[in-house]
Design brief:
Blueprint lengths: L3 H8 L3 E9 L7 E9 L2 E10 L2 E7 L1 H12 L3 E8 L2 E7 L5 E7 L6 H15 L7 H4 L14 H18 L6 E7 L5 H13 L3 E8 L2 H13 L5 E5 L14 E8 L2 H11 L4 E7 L2 H6 L13 H22 L2 E7 L10 E7 L8 H11 L4 H10 L1
Parallel strand pairs: 8-9, 8-11, 9-10, 11-12
Antiparallel strand pairs: 1-2, 1-5, 2-3, 3-4, 5-6, 6-7, 12-14, 13-14
Helix pairs in contact: 5-6, 8-12
The chain binds S-adenosylmethionine.
């Protein structure tokens, strides 16, 4: 016979997740999950209860968690799973109200031991055990909140993305924040960022994801509503021509927004005074399709594969140089290992100074000489007319 409250108290210091399922009649929720979270630098246990297809959240101290377990969880759920650094244990409720412990095993981790060590470094931000339930609906997590194997690379990218965001925002006092994601697609990143800002850090965040695909946008809105993410919205829009949010923004992100969608995103960010831009471009076809021989760089244009890579790098160098001219401090970095994604270059920019024109005239001259088109450069020209 196991004393569930005592077992939970022992598991709390290394708790990854506790799941209370198969409710009895007296249970308030159909299912309850407890996970550790860090909010504004303080550690809590987040209680998530599901009722009528809706999720309810409370962030609790250790004492409040134990009180909740004592008053409303123990004895009210037939199945309990406790996962901690010590392993996983299952408990089954018996007729007499006591629990039978049905085994303890090491907690398996996706990607083996190497991934475990790697994850452990990242645990502070998005540990597997504290993951975001909305991602089950998006197909990134299994119903028991494990990463779907096929999505592991995506998950790793997003984790890294959020770490870089955290580098910029960890010392920022939570307040109002407007965040846009251009080309959000299935919105794994958007949901995780919302979770990071709104749930973990306590920002009063307004977040919008834009995408061309109406069905995907509809699904994302339904998921946001289901989890009570009331200030997270998705809109069907072509970011190159549709009317978008018309007010200053704080942060703009893109993750693999196709081809020139990235240029429209950067242009929008600059025009709306974004303090931060985190943009991972994708399929930079435009220069590759339009460049022709014109001078010293001709040797780089002879072979298709080299031309393609040079064009992609030239595209992102021009984007970075334009942002510098717009008063941003810019880094170009490999944000994940090349082995995890060939599209691994991130443009990270922070607005720090006044605009100046140093790089743009040189890019114009280069574009004219080599006959290529580059949307962000053309958008700068358009503005000046
Ligand atoms: C490769 S997906 C990336 C999706 C998501 N950011 C991610 O990383 O999972 C690119 C997305 O950009 C969207 N997209 C491409 N051009 C767009 C445009 N002009 N306006 C809005 N969305 C666009 C596509 O519909 C697609 O969902």
């Amino acid at each position: 016979m196991a004393d569930l409250n005592r077992e939970l108290a022992a598991a709390l210091p290394l708790l990854q997740k506790a799941v209370f399922s198969q409710p009895t009649e007296g249970a308030e929720y159909q299912k309850v999950t407890l996970r550790p979270v860090t909010i504004k630098g303080k550690d809590y246990f987040q209680m998530e209860g599901f009722r009528d297809n809706k999720a309810f959240h409370r962030n609790l101290s250790r004492e409040e968690t134990l009180a909740l377990a004592d008053e409303s969880l123990a004895g009210r759920y037939r199945q309990v799973l406790l996962m901690s650094g010590d392993g996983a244990a299952q408990y089954v409720l018996r007729r007499d109200g006591s629990y039978k412990k049905s085994g303890k095993s090491a907690v398996p981790r996706p990607g083996g031991e190497a991934a475990y060590t790697h994850d452990r470094e990242k645990r502070y931000l998005l540990a597997e055990g504290e993951n975001i339930p909305a991602l089950v609906d998006l197909g990134v997590f299994t119903p028991d909140l494990r990463i779907v194997k096929a999505k592991y690379d995506k998950y790793r990218q997003i984790n890294r993305f959020v770490e870089l965001i955290d580098d910029a925002f960890s010392s920022v006092e939570p307040g109002k924040l407007t965040v846009l994601d251009f080309g959000c697609g299935k919105s794994y990143l958007t949901f995780i960022l919302y979770y990071y800002f709104a749930v973990k850090r306590g920002f009063d965040v307004e977040m919008i994801g834009y995408d061309l695909k109406e069905d995907v946008v509809g699904h994302c809105n339904a998921v946001a509503e289901k989890y009570g993410y009331s200030t997270l919205h998705f809109e069907t829009a072509d970011v190159s021509k549709d009317k978008l949010l018309d007010k200053p923004i704080d942060l703009l992100v893109t993750l693999h927004a196709c081809d020139t969608a990235t240029d429209y995103a950067l242009d929008f960010a600059v025009r709306h005074g974004a303090k931060y831009i985190f943009s991972v471009p994708c399929c930079q076809h435009e220069i590759n399709a339009s460049i022709s021989k014109g001078g010293d760089l001709d040797a780089l244009l002879r072979y298709g594969v080299v031309k393609e890579r040079v064009s992609a790098l030239l595209t992102d160098s021009i984007r970075a140089g334009i942002l510098e001219d717009m008063g941003y401090t810019v880094d170009l970095m490999e944000f994940v290992d090349l082995a995890h994604s060939p599209k691994n270059l991130m443009i990270r920019a922070e607005k720090r100074g006044a605009p100046r024109e140093k790089n743009i005239p040189r890019f114009r001259e280069l574009a004219e000489r080599y006959g290529f088109r580059q949307t962000l450069l053309e958008l700068c020209d358009r503005k000046e007319q």
